[in-house]
Specification:
- The complex is a heterodimer of chains A (387) and B (352).
- By secondary structure, chain A is an alpha+beta fold.
- Chain A contains 13 helices and 10 strands.
- Chain A has a 10-stranded antiparallel β-barrel with strand order 1-2-3-4-5-6-7-8-9-10, surrounded by 5 helices.
- Chain A is globular and about 75 Å long.
- The N terminus and C terminus of chain A are likely disordered.
- In chain B, strands 4-3-2-1-7-6-5 form a 7-stranded antiparallel β-sheet. In chain B, strands 8-9-11-10 form a 4-stranded mixed β-sheet, with helices on both faces.
- Chain B is elongated and about 105 Å long.
- Classes of the chains: A alpha+beta (387), B alpha+beta (352).
- At the A-B interface, helix 1, helix 2, helix 3, strand 3 and helix 4 of A face helix 2, helix 3, helix 4, helix 8 and helix 9 of B.
């Protein structure tokens, strides 16, 4: 569960507005409007340091306000056709969501230590709540994001959220549950099976997110690309496997060369760890770049399509520099790293339209009155849980 | 419609959105007389009392947003002149925004951040974790231990092959050690084996259970005092609630790292926690050693038994794979010396 949660927030972010706006559509005379990002590391450093210090001094309570300021800074510095995105949200809703998330997480962490039955109950509660929380977080982010004065939205119904995501979360915990229920071997088999289904699960969540975004009366659509998801996971996995094999070989070689020397084992281990770390450093931007391309090239919003030129060979040096600088500065480079990463990933994106942008924008009439159901759901879903 | 009053170049340039079309209009606006006036070439578009307008706080040089009460939106580039004009009409930035916008204040916050994080990591969190571990009810702790043992039995552990007579002997010696130290009756040995390999290991679970693996019984077979020293060391972990404490510390570490770096990635924060755990567990080992040394002295056993154990284990590590009991227990030599010194002096070492 925890790993999955680790990937979710950034996913939610991509789906949410910081990147997601529409522009005009694709056809014969394709017009492209690139996203521009005007944030800077030096500016964001000052926001980050204040956010982090106040969060620490208030034992986490301020983190809800910090999140709003951070999201606003990134949104307002992202521009399409010259105009900024905007993010504004009620921090108390975020705080509520975080308290709920912490309670659930704490419950889950301790439940199996306490007893098997309590553990199973905790797991069921979390799996049962997860689709609601996923839809809620998406809705919260999109609903609070605007471009040219118009809010984005997230149109998934509660039923739709459960139909799409319940199976994914249930699969996610199935290995843990099988192990807890008694069989280590069965647990390992199921975990292996779930591992093979990981791209399918990821694709399913992405499709759910990218099929329910709305803007100015238009809904988004997403063309399935399961094969590309599997290919992406395969290549990233291959890279990791290769790094592991090279690391094992080099560790063995250095151990052999230095045999007899007291520190042979230490040198071997260090060589291995460094190679594996480099493998991760390459696999991660490869994965991020390919997934961004696969997802956005198949997403449309009404008459608008998206183009992304993100490439591994550009993303890798950014990732490598970020990691090196983070190590050198003991983590203080963090805000600069965030900005560099966001800038490249955003500026690779453009919105594509057939008609001239001004024309097509004028033609888009905001759905005059959002249905009462939609607005009710806004209150019901008005809970943010993504970090 | 009023006539154009701002004139070309008067007031500020902005973009105005009607809230229904994703299209913008070039406008000029002015803040005066407690009002916000928005105009384009054709005349006035909107006029609202400033009190009804939601002005987004400044975020460095990011554009400003003015949410107007009729659902429309005004967007303006940030500038010193705009900030000054807003200040004049009483829309002042909050204290947090002022901290964010000036370098000296930000650097002061940075010093505060590093200090607070350091203190929390070194003193604050371990203290809280200790408190939490000690205040956990013994029943709950015992239950956690039983749960952990049941899980290990289902997965890694197997029944022990140690003879019942030998077990009774070991239990008798441990009982004598316990009696000399007035230790809790809940503390007991569980004998277990592992599949293949030596399993030269013993470990403590929350709530009093010490799991003693067959490999360790075999390893210390010629030297019963050495086995008591192992059990004494594990008793030290029990005495100080190290298992529950490290659980709470890990949670605290996750929370702290999440607070600092959690805004983007949990990878960085997890790595930070992992390194923290290594440092903590070294301190725990030293604490357990000191408990064992003092306890052995009380039970009339020379702490040299503990020193012999470290040297034996280290020697074993030299020729084969590292026995698991030492892999998390660094600096065997230094720890052995400490035990020998205490044996020579006949009294526990001074606190570190």
């Amino acid at each position: 569960m925890s790993d999955f949660q680790a990937t979710l927030p950034s996913e939610l972010q991509v789906a949410s507005g910081a990147i997601a706006p529409p522009g005009p559509a694709a056809a014969a005379p394709r017009l492209e409007a690139p996203l521009r990002f005007t944030g800077s590391g030096a500016e964001y450093f000052r926001i980050w340091v204040v956010n982090t210090t106040l969060t620490l001094l208030t034992l986490g309570i301020y983190s809800a306000w910090a999140k709003v300021r951070k999201a606003s800074y990134f949104a307002r510095n992202t521009r399409l056709l010259g105009d900024s995105f905007d993010f504004s949200a009620n921090p108390w809703a975020i705080l509520r969501g975080r308290v709920l998330a912490l309670v659930l997480l704490g419950f889950y962490t301790f439940a199996f230590e306490f007893s098997l039955v309590v553990g199973l109950i905790a797991t069921s509660v979390i799996v049962a709540a997860a689709p609601f929380l996923l839809a809620s977080a998406n809705r919260f982010r999109l609903h609070n994001t605007r471009w040219r004065g118009i809010r984005f939205g997230f149109s998934a119904s509660l039923r739709g959220a459960y139909r799409a995501a319940l199976i994914v979360f249930a699969l996610w915990v199935s290995g843990t549950v099988a192990t807890a229920l008694g069989s280590y071997v069965l647990g390992a088999w199921i975990s292996g099976l779930v591992f093979l289904l990981l791209p399918w699960m990821h694709h399913r969540i992405k499709a759910f997110q990218h099929r329910h975004a709305t803007f100015a009366g238009h809904g988004s659509s997403f063309e399935s690309s399961l094969g590309k998801f599997y290919a992406t996971y395969f290549f990233a996995g291959l890279l990791l496997f290769a790094a592991g094999a090279i690391a094992a070989a080099l560790a063995g070689v250095s151990f052999y060369w230095l045999r007899g020397a007291g520190n042979a084992k230490v040198v071997g281990i260090i060589v291995g760890v460094v190679i594996v770390a480099i493998g991760y450093l390459a696999a991660w931007p490869l994965f991020a770049a390919r997934i961004q391309r696969v997802v956005w090239e198949r997403t449309r919003l009404g008459p608008l399509a998206f183009e992304t030129r993100i490439a591994f060979r550009t993303l890798f040096p950014i990732a490598a520099r970020n990691v090196a600088m983070l190590l050198v500065t003991a983590g203080l480079y963090w805000p600069f790293a965030s900005i560099a990463w966001a800038r490249y990933r955003l500026e690779c994106m453009s919105v594509v339209s057939e008609a001239p942008f001004d024309e097509s924008m004028h033609a888009i009439e905001a759905s005059a009155a959002p249905s009462a159901v939609g607005e009710g759901a806004a209150d019901f879903f008005g809970l943010d849980i993504g970090w | 419609m009023e006539t154009l009053s701002l004139g070309r170049g008067g007031g500020f340039a902005g973009r105005w959105f009607d809230g229904r079309h994703p299209a913008g209009h070039q406008v000029r606006f002015a803040l005066a007389g407690g009002e916000l006036r928005v105009e384009d070439e054709g005349g006035a578009i909107a006029r609202h009392r400033l009190a009804d307008v939601q002005v987004a706080e400044p975020l460095q040089r990011a554009p400003r947003m003015f949410s107007l009460p009729d659902g429309t939106l005004l967007q303006a580039e940030e500038s010193d002149a705009l900030a000054a004009a807003l200040g004049e009409v009483g829309v002042a930035p909050s204290r947090v925004v002022r901290l964010q916008s000036a370098w000296p204040a930000s650097l002061l916050m940075l010093v505060l951040l590093v200090g607070a994080a350091w203190w929390l990591y070194v003193d604050g969190m371990p203290m809280l974790a200790d408190k939490a571990a000690r205040s956990l009810s013994p029943e709950l702790e015992a239950r956690m231990g039983m749960q952990a043992l049941a899980a290990l039995d289902r997965s890694l552990l197997q029944p022990s092959k140690v003879e019942p007579a030998r077990r009774a002997e070991i239990e008798k010696r441990f009982a004598a050690f316990q009696a000399a130290n007035g230790a809790s009756a809940a503390r007991r040995i569980e004998f277990r084996g592992v599949g293949d390999g030596d399993g030269i290991n013993a470990f403590a679970l929350p709530g009093g259970v010490i799991v003693l693996l067959d490999g360790m019984v075999e390893f210390t077979k010629s030297d019963d005092d050495m086995l008591v020293a192992v059990l004494a060391h594990e008793s030290g972990h029990q005495e100080r609630h190290h298992m529950t404490r490290s659980l709470f510390r890990a949670l605290g570490g996750v929370a702290l790292a999440g607070l600092i770096w959690g805004d983007y990635s949990s990878v960085a924060s997890n790595a930070a926690v992992l390194f923290g755990q290594l440092a903590y567990s070294r301190d725990d080992e030293r604490e357990a050693d000191d408990f064992a040394i003092a306890g052995l002295l009380k039970a009339g056993i020379s702490p040299a038994a503990l020193g012999r154990l470290f040297y034996r284990v280290q020697a074993k590590a030299g020729d084969a794979g590292v026995p698991s009991w030492v892999s998390t227990h660094p600096d065997s030599g230094e720890r052995a010396e400490r035990a020998y010194a205490a044996a020579e002096a006949g009294k526990p070492p001074p606190p570190r």
